[in-house]
Amino acid sequence: FRSMQISEGEGKGEILPPTIQKIIKGYNKYLRPFFDNGPVSVGMSLDIASIDTISEINMDYTATIFLRQRWTDERLCFDGNKSLSLDGRLVEMLWVPDTFIVDSKKSFLHDITVENRLIRIYPNGTVLYALRITTTVACSMDLTKYPMDKQTCTLQLESWGYNINDVMFYWTRGNDSVRGLDTLQLAQYTVEDHFTSVSEAVYETGRYPKLVFHFELKRNILYFILETYVPSILLVVLSWVSFWISQSSVPARICIGVTTVLTMTTLMMGARTSLPNANCFIKAIDVYLGICFSFIFGALLEYAVAHFCTLHQLSSKEVPKKFLESLSLELKLQLMSNLVSSEPVTVKPLTSKSEDFISPMSVMKRLFCIFDCFHVKNPYHIDNYARFSFPLSFIIINVLYWVYYLYF
């Protein structure tokens, strides 16, 4: 037990007021309250001042909080009916809980203009200890429904060295122990729900008290509708313009198809800039952009198929004519050779046994008939079918997409 003076580094030998001297006299800050009489109960409450950033890339959020802790120390009882508010620097002379924030990546205590700490002692020995902290806390996120996702993050408070036999944590007002979220304005999220819970952390060194604050964040989709969904839909509609352009206008149709494909590729790359690069999630926005890209690329392939069928139809009309001309020329040559020879010319009857000239023609006709089954009689009808099938299938897929990701 040492004399009641502030340490040389801070107080420089200044004497404490008599009331504080009387309270602190014989006080040992290295021993917790009720050292031999069971655990000390520490009540906690939070005020969320702000949630600055919520990062999908780093899977964390940064928040500024006011942490308030209350406990009773029978060694600090004094006569009177008013509480004593002490300078925050006097906390070095008192026992305080060793509370820490679980999953905190980086935290700091504000110290402008002085350290933002508050110590208040009540006549019955109750101590109020308040801190202003900014912390970056890890938050595991499921991005499979991004940007129509909901994320549940937590803020966990534990005791570092005191186990449940030494310290017990509790929320002072239950779910009302955390305030500030109702008036909080976030850029991309809306706080839908929040609640508190009490549990224990089990480690190799023992069981420790834990308080958990859960809050559910719903992402605002309006930004993504204007930034990604509407442009991608307009690009798909733009690719359909080629169905109303003549098939003979090759440069116009190719230009529309290639331009929309490249623009859609740029849009897909831009949509991933705010997300983790090495991410195993197949997100909802990736699915939609993939659907739009497929429709745009399909419109480009549709013109390639239609143009090929048009050229094939023109060539197929000339092939039988040339084939018949070659056959007639062969017949004439054979008849002339028979006339020159001395052998009498015998005309074979057109039966199944006469295979010299009839069989090749019948085989070729059958081949042309088989090929004609897969042949488009009028290639210009392909554009007519596309004008109806592409928009209808796109609407059906959109309905299925939005119903699935919004309600399932």
UniProtKB/TrEMBL annotation:
Sorted keywords for this record are: Cell membrane, Chloride, Chloride channel, Disulfide bond, Glycoprotein, Ion channel, Ion transport, Membrane, Receptor, Signal, Synapse, Transmembrane, Transmembrane helix, Transport
Cellular component GO terms, alphabetically?
A: apical plasma membrane; chloride channel complex; synaptic membrane
User: Which SUPFAM superfamilies does its entry note?
Assistant: Neurotransmitter-gated ion-channel transmembrane pore (SSF90112), Nicotinic receptor ligand binding domain-like (SSF63712)
Name listed for the protein in its UniProt record: Gamma-aminobutyric acid receptor subunit pi
InterPro entries named in the record: GABAA/Glycine_rcpt, Neur_chan_lig-bd, Neur_chan_lig-bd_sf, Neur_channel, Neuro-gated_channel_TM_sf, Neuro_actylchol_rec, Neurotrans-gated_channel_TM, Neurotransmitter_ion_chnl_CS
Catalyzed reactions per annotation:
chloride(in) = chloride(out)
Protein's job: Pi subunit of the heteropentameric ligand-gated chloride channel gated by gamma-aminobutyric acid (GABA). GABA-gated chloride channels, also named GABA(A) receptors (GABAAR), consist of five subunits arranged around a central pore and contain GABA active binding site(s) located at the alpha and beta subunit interfaces. When activated by GABA, GABAARs selectively allow the flow of chloride anions across the cell membrane down their electrochemical gradient. Pi-containing GABAARs are mostly located in peripheral tissues.
Q: Which family does it belong to?
A: Belongs to the ligand-gated ion channel (TC 1.A.9) family. Gamma-aminobutyric acid receptor (TC 1.A.9.5) subfamily. GABRP sub-subfamily.
Identify the residues that the record assigns to the Neurotransmitter-gated ion-channel ligand-binding domain, covering every copy: 20-220
The record's subcellular locations are:
Apical cell membrane; Synaptic cell membrane
- Domain named Neurotransmitter-gated ion-channel transmembrane: residues: 228-328
Question: What membrane topology does the annotation report for this chain?
Answer: Multi-pass membrane protein
Question: Quaternary state and partners of this protein?
Answer: Heteropentamer, formed by a combination of alpha (GABRA1-6), beta (GABRB1-3), gamma (GABRG1-3), delta (GABRD), epsilon (GABRE), rho (GABRR1-3), pi (GABRP) and theta (GABRQ) chains, each subunit exhibiting distinct physiological and pharmacological properties.
Annotated GO molecular function terms are: GABA-A receptor activity; GABA-gated chloride ion channel activity
Task: From the record, give the transmembrane residue ranges.
Answer: 221-245, 251-275, 287-306, 388-407
